[in-house]
Design brief:
By secondary structure, the chain is an all-alpha fold. 69% of the residues lie in helices and 0% in strands. The chain contains 7 helices and no strands. α3 packs across α4 and α3 runs parallel beside α7. It is globular and about 50 Å long.
Length: 136
């Protein structure tokens, strides 16, 4: 899958449309998200909603969080910065998300708001589009 629509035009042209693009988040966005900057968090939410790669990945992440209904006994897990780093690596490098990170995403309202809630909203949009198409 390519993400030419998510990239600035000059980058998309330089990369070429045949090459899968996973590392398309800017360094400024990445640093802002890791630093829990509100503007960066809002830009990340918008990116998740508009980027087919990140949107699909966050839908899968949401499914993993929903499937983790019986978390293990409390064990101090990663902090927000480590969780955000794990999610960014998941989105761009397709790395596995560790179990403690999934637990943190369930428990932390801030991380859930910026990574899981956009996936829920995207799911609702997709379901509404499908149901509207089925009615036609």
């Amino acid at each position: 899958m390519t993400c030419d629509s998510c990239l600035p035009p000059e980058v998309a042209k330089a990369v070429g449309s045949d090459i899968p693009v996973r590392t398309h988040l800017s360094d400024a966005l990445r640093i802002g998200v890791l630093a829990e900057d509100e503007d960066a968090d809002l830009r990340m939410e918008g990116h998740i909603m508009s980027c087919p790669i990140c949107g699909e990945s966050c839908l899968c992440l949401w499914e993993a969080v929903r499937g983790n209904v019986d978390p293990p006994a409390y064990v101090p897990g990663p902090n927000c910065a480590q969780t955000r780093n794990d999610v960014l690596r998941y989105l761009e490098d397709d790395r596995e998300v560790p179990e403690p990170t999934l637990v943190h995403l369930q428990d932390c309202e801030s991380c859930q708001t910026h990574f899981i809630e956009p996936a829920k909203a995207l799911y609702a949009l997709l379901v509404n589009e499908e149901s509207a198409g089925a009615q036609d």
